[in-house]
Amino acid sequence: MTNCYCGSSKTFENCCEIYIKGIQKPTTAEALMRSRYSAFATGEADYLVATTHSSTRKFHKKSDILAWSKSNQWIKLEVIASTETTVTFKAYYLDYQLKAQIHHEHSTFTFENGTWFYVDGTYQ
Fold it and tell me: Which residues belong to any copy of the YchJ-like middle NTF2-like domain (predicted)?
């Protein structure tokens, strides 16, 4: 068994997969962000749409999310900083031309009705 895509020392089955499959809910913004990275790595577009806040969901089409997820090879996640409602991270990946890329984002999250949601992010 390999470590989770999010970079934890746990296996995927005991880490982000429990969130992606709806077995448990992430308890922090960082846990949600890590599970969303794992969802990109595994092509779980439904989870990415479901965990995007309703106020910004209209800006994220499932087909676009899935295409971006599948066209890249996800290498690793580096969490730079996190607060209760924000996470700054770098996602390392190879694009469709196998060129190394870094997605550096400062993301904002909100907690509503017992569930964390991704609201938006600014690219660094």
Answer: 28-121
Residue with tokens 């609201």: 119
* Burial degree of 21 (CB within 10 A; 0-12, 13-18, 19+): exposed
Chain position carrying tokens 């439904």: 46
Residue 1 in this model has a pLDDT that exceeds 80: no
**Structure confidence by residue, pLDDT tens digits, 86-111:** 999 999 999 999 999 999 999 999 99
Question: Rounded to 10 degrees, what is the CA torsion of 118, 98, 78, 5?
Answer: 70
Give me the torsion for CA of 64, 70, 75, 78, rounded to 10°: 30
pTM: 0.93
* Angle at 18 (CA atoms; ends 61, 46), nearest 5 degrees: 15
Q: Which helix (H) or strand (E) holds 108?
A: strand 100-112
Choose among 83, 85, 120, 90: nearest CA to 105. 90
Enclosing H/E stretch for 90: strand 86-94
Please state, as a whole number, how many other Cβ atoms lie within 10 Å of the Cβ of residue 75.
Answer: 14
